[in-house]
Amino acid sequence: MGGGLLVAGTASDAGKSVLTAGICRWLAREGVRVAPFKAQNMALNSTVTADGAEIGRAQAMQAAAAGVEPEAAMNPVLLKPGSDRSSQLVVLGRPVAEVDALGYRPHKKALAAVVLDCLDDLRSRFDAVICEGAGSPAEINLRDTDIANMGLARAANLPVIVVGDIDKGGVFAALFGTLALLDPADQALISGFVINRFRGDPRLLDPGLRQIERLTGRRVHGVVPFRPGLWLDVEDSLDLARYADGGADGDPTGAPAGSGETLRVAVIRLPRLSNVTDLDAVRAEPGVVVRLATRPDDLADADLVVLPGTRATVSDLAWLRRRGLAGVLAARAAAGRPILGICGGYQMLGTRITDEVESGAGEVEGLGLLPVTTAFDPAKLLGRRHATSADGGHPISGYEIRHGRLTVAEHPHAAPFAADGVRVGAVAGTSWHGLLENDAFRRAYLTSVASAAGRAFTPGPDTCFADVRARRLDALGDLVADHLDTSALRHLLDHGAPADLPFVPPGAP
Length: 509
Prior knowledge:
- The protein is about 30% helix and about 30% strand.
- The protein is an alpha/beta fold.
- The protein has two domains: about 5-230 and about 470-490, P-loop containing nucleotide triphosphate hydrolases (Rossmann fold, 3-Layer(aba) Sandwich); about 255-460, Class I glutamine amidotransferase (GATase) domain (Rossmann fold, 3-Layer(aba) Sandwich), CATH 3.40.50.880.
- Strand 25 and strand 26 form a beta hairpin.
- The radius of gyration is 23 Å and the shape is globular.
- It starts with a strand and ends in a 14-residue tail after the last helix.
- Pathway: Cofactor biosynthesis; adenosylcobalamin biosynthesis.
- Keywords: Cobalamin biosynthesis, Glutamine amidotransferase.
- Belongs to the CobB/CobQ family. CobQ subfamily.
């Protein structure tokens, strides 16, 4: 086996990321050395590789599915939105510019060369590379500068399968329309379809499957059933509706049971919320319900409120105040009710933020709940971290992605939190992402939260988040093995797109 395959979608959130992960997992279990690849990713959820490069969190998840270490070549171009009009451009794991939509276009030619070099490098080192597209290949207004979909497929001669989400409705029209909008050379690489998130008896789809195959001359390579609890490591805001479904309820991967009352966690849904995946391990704890919050009322019954990371600390802090959430947080702190700030959320909890980098706002007053000041630096701090928890003696690890440099002032009631953070009463903050994936630390922290909230809640003593994630990745691999035509996928990887695929003109039949 050799070669590559591009998994495209009829739209964002069609299921490209999880199908790519599932194919990687299936191939890895078959003994194939496989790597994931996404040329260009727009996401606020990112992570850090072993050598300090920033890549999309979804590609790190796909690398875990493949059983390999994530690296910058797997996601050479990352766009991190800071507003509705501008994004930080990260190339090979390092920030290089702030760009708007029009300002990004001049970069595309140089980025195309970077992308193809990375893909060639991966293909030289792995038996197979499973590429994930971005958005839809039928975004015809962007086709002339495309480096992630058909532009990539054409340049690298990749066969393409197109995934459609039937749960949203209109899947046959979306599949047909995606194909019909492409020019003949692009269509020649569209080698088949996959229907995703189907609920019900697949025999009901048979007439539609036969007709779409007849109309397009492409095979449907499988129908993937809907499975709750598997959509881990969300990539962008479109995934958050599923993220807000609570905790492990409906998780088919068999997490062990906890005991006692339910613990309720509210995560403030900041406009530029980043790395919401920090709470995935908490969601995996039986008996914990995680909800997203945007209004003061959403925090009323929460045992723990989390102020998460953000790509726009100062503007999201202003939003927090406009929504009336800042006053609620102050009242919670005064009442001894737990609050946890992570990265940008930690910075907001401090007394002062000086920002001439992200927002250019200069000096801004923080929430004043922790004795911390933040000064933004143009150089982004990136790295994996390992230490022993100062407040519990637990071995912990995590990673940092930030421009803010924090200084902790003397305070009579301050105590260390984790390895880099501080706690005053029930309010705590840390700059480390991934901290709650450390099982012993997470259990100790949730136990303290339950005590402060007066809850008779005990975390599952055997909950291992790494095992939970591995089971979910195995479940994705099972979906591919059980519901896709894997022999057809192998043929595409070995031989590329079939040579006799017909052209479907717009408006046909």
